[in-house]
Amino acid sequence: MGYSEDSTTGLINDDQAHRKDKQRLIPSKILFTFFEKVITQFDVYPDTKVCEKLLICYEDKEGSEAASSLANDDDDNDERSRTIPVSLETQRQFLLHVQMKALKDAVAEYNSSLTSCTADGVCKIEGDNNDTITVEEVQGCLKLVGCHDFTMVDCDSETSDEILKLMTVMNNSARVAFARSVLWSEVNWSKQYECGDGDNLICDSAKIYKVHRNLQGKSEGGESLIKEIQMDRAKILEYCGLCNTAFTKLPEVQTYISQGKEMFPSDLNNDSTGRNDIHTSSRTSQQRIVNVQNMILCAVGYDPSVGEKIYTQIIEMQQNNDKDYDEDFNKVLSSYMTNLQNLTKTDEKLS
């Protein structure tokens, strides 16, 4: 669903989690501190520092003919200065980096609390030096907690319930942060290719997609190629999961769809031209829903021109959900269809 159901998985080394030697109990305080730090940071993710890394410069190292033709379309436009979004895998790594830093900080704060200092500046650890906890130990503990195993945690049943609740909140926050980051990247990438009519957030230019994004879909093959496009299971989960999160969990997207307001104000790249952001010009909320779908199609590697084909594929799979796929997969498809229907109903009420 765009981001791992258990977003702590990337922090864990399985060997660390399943070592046979006796493990010390991890104070629950460390886990609470870790969860709270991550949730706080994910609530404002991506921040300015991360945003600066979400788009990377496109370099045409081969000097391709396609890139040359793009440059010729606008002599004042240096195609080498164009940017493209980083991969979804890279975006996941950015999120894991946030979690890992929060984990290290939580462990450091706990270990620091065990240290006392005298007036003359001499510091020492109270009790046994073995009381200090390592990051690796907490990683192994988190792996087990993710499986509802509290054998490594120093806590009672009531505290374990609170830990599980916070872990769920953190994982949900991770999915929201991931979706927000993906859409921020797509919005700011698309600003490089503004459309004259304002009907679509993503410009309908095959050569732009071909040169910069390598998206599956529109090319010289035309309609015959579109008919052959199919999303595999992993891509469908990614696409539907991101859509579900965007439509139901991101206030930026909900306000954009219902009111046409700018999704992400351009405060990082101050625009003094006075023009409206491109996605504020879409005329109806239905068009804005399609714009969001198009952005997410781009993010998972597909040209928006195949959107109708993909949508039809998802409908057919959802209608045959008891035949080919597992319950979790069908649940994601069903949620996607329900969310689209709800958005459409809301649009009809407003129109």
Word description of this protein:
Helix content is 57%, strand content 5%. With 351 residues, the chain is mainly alpha-helical. It has a two-stranded parallel sheet with strand order 1-6. Strands 2-3 form a two-stranded antiparallel sheet. Helix 10 (233-249) packs across helix 12 (285-299) and helix 13 crosses helix 14 (327-350). The longest helix has 34 residues, at 157-190.
Primary descriptors:
6 strands, 351 residues, two-stranded parallel sheet, mainly alpha, 14 helices
Outline of the structure:
This protein has 351 residues and is mainly α. The protein has helices at 14-17, 28-42, 48-54, 65-73, 88-113, 135-146, 157-190, 206-213, 222-228, 233-249, 251-259, 285-299, 307-319, 327-350; strands at 26-27, 55-57, 83-85, 115-117, 123-125, 153-154.
Biggest sheet architecture: 2 strands, parallel
The helical percent reads 55-70%
The N- to C-terminal Cα distance equals: 32 Å
**Structural class based on helices, strands and sheet pairing:** mainly alpha
Q: State the strand order across the main sheet.
A: 1-6
The helix/strand series, from N terminus to C terminus, equals: HEHHEHEHEEHEHHHHHHHH
Q: Shape from CA axes?
A: globular
Mean residue pLDDT: 77
Portion in strands = under 5%
Poorly predicted spans = 15-21, 60-80, 196-207, 268-279
Radius of gyration: 24 Å
- Compute the number of helices: 14
Please identify the oligomeric state: single chain
Number of distinct beta strands? 6
